[in-house]
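job 3f2a | input accepted
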Amino acid sequence: MADYGLPAVFTLLVWWFSTGLIIYLDGLRRETFRWTMLGATTLLLVGLFGLHALAWDTSAAGAWLGFVCGVLCWAWIEIAFLTGLVTGPRRTPISSTLRGWPRLRAALAAILWHELAIIAMAGAIVLLTWDAPNRIGTWTFLAFWAMRQSAKLNVFLGVRNLSEAFLPDHLRYLESFFARRPMNALFPVSVLAGATACVLLALAALSPDATRHEAVGFTLLATLVALGLLEHVFMVLPFSADALWKWGLAARPDVKQKSRPQPSSAA
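job 3f2a | predicted structure (267 res):
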């Protein structure tokens, strides 16, 4: 059970803590971002080196460490975007009356450099692990990419919960690209695709022929995809999941202001 239970719990903790930490760091004053990016870039280099060094390690430890390296690479992508360092050429909101292709073109312009950075990073990771037996880190990064792309499209097309509270002040213009509606036509397809991937990964982990490396690695990936699926479900629930990362939002000036006791109006 250690090859299944521990990886599942570990992925859950990494997902919860890393999300909250990134939200917290990107809510701090902008002058701190240089240090945040310095730390993130250092960890990115560790992750890329680790993926290459572990590419031929087919032990259980190789699966664990490969997963962590994949997470470090994706964390740089998220931090670079949320700090505003790597977004797109457009940094202004759009009119609420904009529809169709003009709205899509404007949305692409708002995140173009971000998307190109993901493609470049994915290409580098694939090359570093090309034709190697341990590609758990590669699949980790690609799983993050697929889930995030699906989430972006669903928020663009319209869902009930947009999680706009997670956007730092300098990215508030992105809210104009979001659409709020009960659901959209893509959402069921996204959920079905995520559920199918999760089941296939779980079956691969539980296969009698699976090595310990495969059991651990596929369990890590299956849990990661399941959590991505959960994030999608949060989008259409009648309540927000913001409370899960309330501690991460505490760095935001507006949250701090709300948490301070208000002076009494009695003279």
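job 3f2a | Residues 2-252 form one domain.
job 3f2a | closed
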